[in-house]
Amino acid sequence: GEDVEQSLFLSVREGDSSVINCTYTDSSSTYLYWYKQEPGAGLQLLTYIFSNMDMKQDQRLTVLLNKKDKHLSLRIADTQTGDSAIYFCAEETNSGYALNFGKGTSLLVTP
Amino acid sequence: EPEVTQTPSHQVTQMGQEVILRCVPISNHLYFYWYRQILGQKVEFLVSFYNNEISEKSEIFDDQFSVERPDGSNFTLKIRSTKLEDSAMYFCASSKGGNTEAFFGQGTRLTVV
What we know:
The complex is a heterodimer of chains A (about 110) and B (about 110).
Chain A: E1 5-6, E2 9-13, E3 18-23, E4 31-37, E5 43-50, E6 55-58, E7 61-66, E8 71-76, E9 85-92, E10 99-101, E11 105-110
Parallel strand pairs in A: 2-11
Antiparallel strand pairs in A: 1-3, 3-8, 4-5, 4-9, 6-7, 7-8, 9-10, 9-11
Chain B: E1 5-7, E2 10-13, E3 19-24, E4 31-37, E5 43-50, E6 53-57, E7 65-68, E8 75-79, E9 88-95, E10 103-104, E11 108-112
Parallel strand pairs in B: 2-11
Antiparallel strand pairs in B: 1-3, 3-8, 4-5, 4-9, 5-6, 7-8, 9-10, 9-11
């Protein structure tokens, strides 16, 4: 199938904002998700957005959705060193029974 | 907080051997999934399972793979005759509904030698 696209690396300084971008493929996805994977760990659901919304804020996290361009972004305010991880964007497949992941963006937060 | 648990965390097996990866989904979840992540690559969907049957599977999930819910708590992935290219991290996940957020386990790292 088509790929969910993400940039592979992002480096920011502690205290700055991080913006991770994603282009998805399936316009019928009901939900779009962001997962976080710390080194050696599993996938942690970070946040998700319903496709009828264009923005969702959850503490330091802001998700923006542009359905016309199939573009999803995750903004992390006041980024901390503990935010260093790989962030995966995921869309639902047509059936809704599976997730199609991007390759992940590796976020490095430097002091 | 309820979580998906997977065992073992790491398994090494010889090529051609059968392996069974085990998962205990969150207890009130009805949908169960297996995904895999080959080192350095993206997380790929393998199979979803609901009401004791496969609801969807990917091209990766060929005849070498099978899933089972042998009792009320476990969900297993069996690979009948492992190949070198089966080496990957295998993630189990569960969700309450088909279109609701899936919670993932910590993964089992399978190494085929």
